[in-house]
What does this fold into?
Amino acid sequence: MSLEIVTGSSNYALADEVAKNLGVELVPRILERFPDGELNIEIKQSVRGCDVYLIEPTCPPVDEHFFELFLLADACRRAGATHLTAVIPYFGYARQDRRAHGREPVSLRLLADLIAASAVQRVVVVDFHSRAVESAFAVPVEHVSAISILANAVRPSVHKDGVVVSPDLGAVKMAEHYARLLGLSVAIIHKTRISGAEVTVQRIIGDVRDREIVVVDDMITTGGTIEKAIKALLDAGCSSSGIKVVASHGLFVGNAADRLAQLPIEKIYVSDSVPRPERSPLPLQVSSLAPLLAETIHRLYRLESLGNVLAHE
It folds into this structure.
């Protein structure tokens, strides 16, 4: 049974690097739109009897990329793929895992059901917003992490007296993981979210005065959480030089780049789970997930233990 890699349009460069790391070629496919906007998808190579890995991060436009994923999965199933794994480095809707007010959908659960209905037998994700969301899936979920990769990237520029900062309570375990790898202490910001783009900081737990900070989170979307966190840390007396931000997923939607460019950030470290923003004014350093994803796929294909590539809290 041969290993085949199929990809949609969301992050072709990452999928191509994964394929190169594995020593295979991407499966050729047609992915275009009819004049009325409907997707036209066709797999141009036999995948009958193959172990197929479909790489499709669901970055903006999220809905379009999810639908690409569903149609590509269905095309592979109907073409006779024996095993089908969806590799989704960034999983959109992961924060919509519960109802906040009572009249909303549980979007994550619905998408998990749609993934299972499209004949995907296993899902690989990178740094889910919460490990608890795995329970929404009827198929096995392999949760791998970019934390070690990003910690290695930031380590050369970290001061020994620096402090890793969790911008909210939800990122505390992630911050503790970074702190262990970097040999630093941890501070925690207690925030309240007002809306999808606005947050307010209530207090800081930990010593940050005159210390360089490394703010860590799973993702940067509008930049609101990072902006409020850094302003609160500056008000608390942290060093205004050497501020670093680390996040697994750098979406930078809306005016995120402009709002973060106004802050004294030395560098922002992200992975390539989603494409790098074009013409960004931000001091970005992008680390590739290709070796991690290639190793994960290789082990799954060979039926080997994932061991140390799995995310651990």
